[in-house]
Design goal:
With 506 residues, the protein is of the alpha+beta class. It is built from 22 helices and ten strands. The strands form four sheets. The chain has a four-stranded mixed β-sheet with strand order 5-4-7-8, covered by helices on one side. A two-stranded antiparallel ribbon has the order 1-6.
Length: 506
């Protein structure tokens, strides 16, 4: 073919194309981070911003504007009235603008407006009678409480401390630290003595002696290779080597896990009742001795929202006690007003003030968004607030987002890691969002409520004649709840309830 050049056809080529991508502005990313952060993380983020932005200062005079909200019920619907909405002329704007949208270049006019904003807030707080911040003594008590929350040492640290107090020699202590390094968070030794001995070129018998020393440490059962050894160590620690429990665990632990009570009774030469009583005592042992040292046990929860009942209504408030109350420092306003200030100084301060105002606005929007979402949750979950988990209704983030006027991803960020204190207890805000099952009367019931009902049915069953999943299906249908057998089996598994053949007691 004339003009064909294979080298050109196989070479590199440049091609223009248009691709649409979404890039979030840094300020928007920061605002979303503030929205998603739990309250104590938010406190740290705000304190860090204050360190980096000299124009920000903490106002000591009052709590934030979102202190109180009151619930009123009219015409059968809950109407929540915010007692402390800011004055109409007070707006947190990241960049002060003219009416036509152009930035203000008159610095003197801008800072006069800021001064007026401060006075408006003072008047607003005085009119709404928002309580003053906690006294210095109360602040010191709260800080003392937080400082007193000492982190629990890890299981490995706990064991190493015991090694140092043991009678092991220096070489034995080094081997003990090696063994402890191979113990998982649940307290089980994940490598056998021969493997460790080969890896360290150590006498296996010496290493086994070290393992036995570690297995004498607290908590009982630590350093075991499997569940059987873990339970035997605990029984030995209690001096129950000659008990029926010890014999069952030593020789029939797999049959015990499958609840083969008659088979075990024949093997150990005891009655079924005696074996069942022994099985209950075995169940009181700790299958995971390191559980008490897991990090999750140190979790300290601070509710973001408080829901309290006042008569027939509910009052909803956000937790603002741990968020610094910010304002723009008057000192830097004065510097900007001085004619002798250089343009570089004025530009620097102007940028910091705008960043500070954006932070104040973002915090305000965060609190308002969480409050609006909490209001809608209470509106839709009124029966839960009154009567408990059994009355939890199906609810999706899309439904709440439509009412609040935000995107469902904003709702997801706003409730992530946040907790709500209600008359029924403290719940993660995500707890109130659940799919549902249609009932015979056309009303929906949340999956959580169905699980709670299934759990209650199994808790009241006759253990000598345990209920099958199909029987539970029929019992639910009699209450107007239509659910498939496989769904009951799924929920039963999630509730850690064994199948009927493994729950039977003889």
């Amino acid at each position: 073919m004339a003009g064909y050049n294979p080298r050109i056809s196989q070479g590199l080529m440049l091609k223009n194309s248009q691709i649409q991508t979404l890039v979030l502005a840094p300020q928007l990313q920061h605002s979303l981070q503030l929205l998603q952060a739990p309250i104590m993380e938010l406190k740290s983020m705000v304190e860090q911003e204050m360190e980096q932005n000299p124009t920000l200062e903490e106002a000591e005079m009052v709590d934030t504007e979102l202190r109180d909200s009151e619930g009123r019920e009219e015409n059968g619907e809950t109407q929540l009235i915010d007692q402390s909405e800011p004055p109409e002329d007070v707006k947190f704007d990241p960049a002060t603008e003219k009416a036509n949208g152009e930035p203000v270049d008159d610095f003197q006019a801008e800072f006069e407006r800021l001064a007026q904003m401060d006075q408006d807030w003072r008047d607003h707080f005085a009119q709404t009678n928002i309580p003053l911040r906690a006294s210095q003594e109360e602040e010191e008590k709260r800080q003392f409480m937080l400082d007193s929350l000492v982190a629990t040492p890890s299981l490995q640290e706990h064991l190493i401390d015991q090694v140092r107090l043991s009678e092991l020699d220096e070489h034995g202590q080094r081997l003990a630290e090696l063994v402890i390094g191979n113990i998982d968070d649940y307290g089980y030794l994940k490598s056998n003595a021969d493997e460790l001995a080969f890896a360290t070129n150590t006498d296996p018998n010496k290493l086994k002696e070290v393992i036995e020393v570690i297995q004498s440490f607290h908590p009982a059962g630590v350093g075991a290779r499997d569940l059987r050894e873990c339970l035997l160590l605990q029984l030995t620690r209690e001096g129950r080597q000659n008990s029926i429990e010890y014999r069952i665990v030593d020789h029939h632990v797999e049959a015990l896990g499958k609840r083969k009570i008659p088979e075990i009774a024949r093997a150990v030469g005891h009655s079924i009742d005696e074996v069942q009583a022994a099985a209950r005592r075995i169940a009181q042992l700790e299958p995971r001795p390191g559980r008490a040292f897991l990090p999750d046990n140190d979790q300290y929860i601070l509710p973001e929202v408080f829901v309290t009942k006042s008569g027939e209504d509910y009052t909803i408030t956000t937790n603002n006690d741990y968020i610094p109350h910010l304002r723009i420092s008057n000192t830097y306003k004065d510097i900007m007003a001085q004619s002798g200030s250089s343009s570089e100084v004025r530009d620097y301060i102007q940028e910091k003030i705008r960043a500070g105002k954006f932070l104040i606005k973002s915090i305000h929007q965060r609190q308002q968004t969480i409050l609006n979402i909490a209001r809608e949750i209470v509106n839709r979950q009124r029966a839960f607030m009154d009567k408990g988990v059994a009355f939890l209704k199906p609810l999706t983030m899309v439904q709440v987002a439509e009412v609040v006027g935000v995107h469902e991803t904003t709702v997801s960020r706003a409730v992530s890691g946040k907790y709500m204190q209600t008359p029924q207890g403290v719940f993660e805000m995500k707890y109130f969002f659940t799919s549902g099952i249609q009932t015979s009367d056309g009303a929906g019931m949340s999956n959580t409520s169905v699980k709670d009902k299934i759990s209650d049915i199994f808790s009241r069953e006759d253990r000598t004649k345990p209920l099958s999943d199909q029987e539970v299906v029929h019992m639910l249908e009699s209450e107007g709840i239509h659910i498939a057998r496989r769904t009951v089996a799924k929920y039963r598994s999630e509730l850690n309830i064994l199948p009927s053949n493994l729950r039977k007691e003889y």
